[in-house]
Amino acid sequence: MAIYREQFAVDAKADGSPVTGADHAAEQIIVAALARLKPDIPVIAEEAVAAGRVADISSGRFWLVDPLDGTREFVKRNGEFTVNIALVDAGAPVLGVVLVPTLDRVYAGWCHAGARVAIAADGAGPDRAIRARPLPAERPIVVASRSHRSAELEEYIAGLKPGASRVAGSSHKFCLVASGEADIYPRLGRTMEWDTAAGHAIVEAAGGSVTLLDGSPLRYGKPGFENPYFIVRGE
N or C end of the chain: which has fewer CB within 10 A? Predict the structure, then answer.
C-alpha cells in the first residue's frame, strides 16, 4: 500500500502483463513467511515462475501465491486488487486466504471449517461466517471481470438472463460469490492457478462450487499452471 500511494514504475513481463515493485516486494515477504511457517511445503509464486524459478511439487502438496492479483487494477488505482495465498493438496485447493487491501478486508476458507471474512487486514478485527447462497433458477446476480471481457463472455452472460450484473477486478469476484453477494462468476478467458486457487478454496468452503464448463472439477498443479475456462457458482 505504501507503493500504491506513491508514483511507481510499471514494467511488462514476457507475456505482456504488467508488473510493479509491489508485486515483487509482496512476494518476497509472503514466501519468506511461508518458509518459516512450513519449511517442508514448496511454494509456487507468480513472479518466481515468471523468472523461471519453479519449485518441485511432485509431493502433491504446495502453496500457490499471487502477491498482487489484479496488477492492472493496481496501476489504475481503482482499488480492485487482492493478495492470494492457497494451499493445494492432491490437486485440490484446501485452504485459501484473499486480502483486499483497499477495503481492509480478509476472506479465508478451509475445507474442514467453512469460510469467514474479517474486517481488518491483519485478521484481528471482528469476523463473521460467510455462505454462498443457492443459485436462483431465474435472474441470477452475475459478476465478471472488469479488465478481461470478450464477445464469448458477453454472449454467455446474456444467456444467463441475469437480474443484475457486477464487475470487479482480481479474485474478489470469488469472494462475492462466497459471501452471497453474487450468484455466478463465469470466466471464459485466460487465468493462472495462482489467480484462482485461494478464491476457489473460499468458495468451496462457503458451500459453492468451481467447475470447468463440462462440470468437472478445476484441478491444480497442471503443467504450465494455466487454467481452462471455468464457472464459479453458489450452492
Answer: N
